[in-house]
Structure formats: structure tokens, C-alpha cells
């Protein structure tokens, strides 16, 4: 299974668990919940996609791309917070910060995996170059 697929599956498992808890606690505000997760899913998929593109085009800048995308994601969430009407939900900081942080952790793990793969392939290329120059 590809790492991208694994992280996307884990993201949707997190949504299902949070939604299950949401329904079990009978909090209500399903429309706000649904709009927030649509927005968070779009941001998550954007980060994964852009990091994959950066890996293919500019592999040495994966870390910088990740930092920039995290800043864009946070700014977009603050801008859209009023439109999503998150403050209408009681204890909204608890209910909406945890899914954001879980998605951030998944994105971070994905970026680390890309960087490790990049470092491993760069080390392999260096070994091959050293072998050919020593012959």
C-alpha cells in the first residue's frame, strides 16, 4: 500500500471516529460539523498533493514546501472560521482543534516519509557515483 493511500485512509478513519463520538454524545450542529470536515479534507488533500508534486519537481525543497503549506493551511482556517460558524458549537475549540491537529500530524508523517525517501535515494546515488569514480 502506498503511503499516500495509508494517510488518506487514516484521515477518514479519524473523521469516522470523531463523527461517531459526535453522534454518541448527541452534540448536534451536524451542518457545522460537515462543513468543517469538507474544508479540512480539502486542505488535507491539497497538502498531500502539493507535497507529492514538490517531491517530483523539487525534491530538495520538500521541508520548505511543508512549512509553507502548514502556514497556508492555518491562515485559510482562520479566514474561513467565520464562514464555517464554528463558534456556534459549545466547546468548539476542543471539537475542532483535535481533528485539525490529527490532520497536521498525518501531514507531518507524510512529509517526513517523503524526506526520508529522498535522503535514502540521494545516499544511494552518492554511493553509485563513488563506485564509478573509484574504478
SSE topology string: HHHH
Sheet with the most strands, sense and barrel status:
none
Count of the separate structural domains: 1
Radius of gyration: 19 Å
- Shape type: elongated
- Rounded mean pLDDT score: 83
Helical segment tally?
Answer: 4
Distance between the termini: 39 Å
- Number of strand elements: 0
Would you identify the regions where 5 or more consecutive residues have pLDDT less than 50? none
How does the helix and strand content classify structurally? mainly alpha
How much of the sequence lies in strands comes to under 5%
Give an overview of the whole structure.
This protein is mostly helical and 135 residues long. The chain has one domain. It contains 4 helices and no strands. The chain has helices at residues 3-24, 30-57, 62-84, 92-134. The radius of gyration is 19 Å and the shape is elongated. The chain starts with a helix and ends with a helix. 16% of the residues are buried. Keywords: Membrane, Transmembrane, Transmembrane helix. The chain crosses the membrane at residues 5-22, 34-54, 61-84, 96-115.
Amino acid at each position: 500500500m502506498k503511503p499516500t493511500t495509508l494517510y488518506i485512509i487514516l484521515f477518514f478513519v479519524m473523521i469516522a471516529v470523531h463523527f461517531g463520538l459526535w453522534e454518541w454524545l448527541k452534540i448536534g450542529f451536524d451542518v457545522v460539523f460537515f462543513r468543517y470536515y469538507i474544508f479540512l479534507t480539502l486542505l488535507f488533500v491539497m497538502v498531500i498533493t502539493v507535497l507529492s508534486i514538490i517531491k517530483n519537481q523539487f525534491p530538495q525543497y520538500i521541508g520548505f514546501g511543508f512549512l509553507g503549506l502548514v502556514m497556508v493551511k492555518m491562515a485559510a482556517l482562520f479566514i474561513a472560521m467565520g464562514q464555517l460558524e464554528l463558534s456556534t458549537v459549545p466547546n468548539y475549540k476542543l471539537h475542532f482543534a483535535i481533528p485539525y491537529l490529527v490532520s497536521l500530524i498525518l501531514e507531518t508523517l507524510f512529509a517526513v516519509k517523503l524526506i526520508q525517501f529522498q535522503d535514502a535515494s540521494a545516499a544511494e546515488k552518492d554511493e553509485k557515483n563513488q563506485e564509478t569514480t573509484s574504478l
